[in-house]
Amino acid sequence: MLENLEPKSVFHFFEEITKIPRPSNHEDEMADYLVKFAEDRGLEHYRDEANNVIIIKEATPGYENAAPIILQGHSDMVCEKVPGSTKDMEKEGVDLIVNGDWITADGTTLGGDDGAAVAMAMAILDSKELKHPRVEFLCTAGEEIGMVGANALKDKDLSMLKGRLMINIDSEEEGVCTAGCAGAGSFLADLPLERGECTMERRQIHVHGLLGGHSGQDINKGRANANLLVTRVLIALANAGCTRLISMFGGKMDNTINKESTAAVALGDVEQAKTIIADIEQTVRNEFVLADPDIHIDLEEIPADAEYANWEPLTRECSDHAITLLASLPNGVLRMNDAIPGQVETSLNLGIVTTTLDTLHLDTFVRSNVSSEQRDVLDRLLWVCSHLGAKASVSGEYPAWEFVLESKFRDHMQEIWKDMFGKEMELVSMHAGVECGLLATLLPGLDAVSIGPDLTDVHSVNEKLSIKSTQHIYDFICKVLEEAK
Predict the structure, then answer these.
(1) Same domain, yes or no: 386 and 434
(2) Which residue, 5, 16, 210, 412, is most buried by CB atoms nearer than 10 A?
(3) Among 15, 27, 76, 363, which one carries the catalytic annotation?
(4) What is the count of structural domains for the chain?
């Protein structure tokens, strides 16, 4: 499929990677592939129980005294697919489509985040022509679910990593050099549920057709969150006195803006509910006419094979309590950066809602470029949940990557970019998370930058990778390595 694209080596490895299923927590096969790649080439390599992989290629002649450079990316991908897709993304790779300058996948996320980085690093490690200092490729696992792999490195001996200059290849806009990012953490809440017998008719509210997106980079684009829209319907139905909640399911990743959510309910008056839902659908379509134009809210029969089909509804008091919890949690952009126009500083995203017979589970992803604000948001969430009877905790918290004013490595890379492409490389601090901040705590003195090719709509089924931009970024990294003497 990609054999005629340049650079051939990069796209060869990228296509091979896309054949490997690699959702977060399922990176074993990908780690096997990287280890075999290293073994076949006689390269020094390490693998840990978290499926982090390090591959080292020694300096080429004449570069022995140059500072080693770490190339860094992650092996896992966010796995989303279109409704009705039969693709099992835990067992199958993705199906590629090439359309002009763009590579995308058929009905699923592509995994260009961060497969493009892994492919570039592999091409560099595989090259027999490229001149370079010692190259250390650090490929972490579980990045998309709270930097699990990078966190696992805290207890490891990392003395094999000699480099203190690092190029993270996990950004998504060509010509942009990221030198700071938000810290983040997953806020988890579990509300105990009580159920009671009920003779009311049962239906399910289904919100779908939303764009979704990345909860960092897309959080300020005004897109709807399906979990919040379901909550909006539940509040309206509860105010009309015609509903009791049975279950709610929405979202698979807390760092993805949820695009589909379903709530099963018991209804005292189905016709009244239909009218309320139709009114809300029209209202939100008007509100999101530009940012999220294809919102649908349907009242459906509950599928007979649904796990919640025979669950009793929550008691009236418990149903109101659950809806109150859903309605009480803040969501979206909380503060913009005062110094950088258009830059989000603090936000949160209700990415996952699930239900068991006895528990309503909420998973909210909190981001901030300011550590004190991140702590404040988490404290507010803990306060609300504790006073509404929900057990709450924070998981996978990682620090912000603080922007530093002076970096010779970054300055030199910016000079090379201008020489190659005739324009300045933009310097930014991003609201999304990359692993540089966490890795900087493990590798004292680390001087890092994050770059990457043009990727659009990451974490969604519309994800696309630019072919030409991939070539530019690869050529640029190779030039940085060649000039490292």
Answers:
(1) no
(2) 210
(3) 76
(4) 2
CA distance 332 to 349: 6
User: 194: domain CATH number?
Assistant: 3.30.70.360
Question: Could you say which of 383, 398, 413 is where a domain stops?
Answer: 398
Q: What is the CA radius of gyration of the chain?
A: 24
Q: Which domain holds residue 216?
A: 185-398
Instruction: Supply the DSSP string of 47-111, one letter for each residue.
Output: E-TT--EEEEEPPPTT-TTSPPEEEEEES-B---B-TT----TTT--PPEEEETTEEEESSB---
The enclosing H or E element of 134 equals none
Look-up: residue for tokens 């105010």? 239
To the query of whether residue 76 is one of the catalytic residues in this protein, the response is yes
**Residue 271 sits in the same domain as residue 415:** no
Residue 254 within any structural domain of the chain: yes
CA dist., res. 128 & res. 369, Å (int): 41
Residues 254-276 pLDDT 10s: 999 999 999 999 999 999 999 99
Residues 394, 310: one domain? yes
Interatomic CA distance for residues 10 and 475, integer angstroms: 11
**Residues 220 and 90 occupy one common structural domain:** no
Model confidence pLDDT, tens digit, residues 172-190: 999 999 998 888 899 999 9
Give residue-wise pLDDT tens across range 113-154.
999 999 999 999 999 999 999 999 999 999 998 899 999 999
- 194 in active site: no
- Marked catalytic residue, from 114, 136, 143, 260: 143
- Is 281 among the domain residues? yes
Q: What was the pLDDT predicted at 338?
A: 84
Question: What pLDDT shows up at residue 266?
Answer: 97
Where does a domain end: 355, 382, 398?
398
CA 457 → CA 66, 92, 250, distances in Å? 38, 22, 20
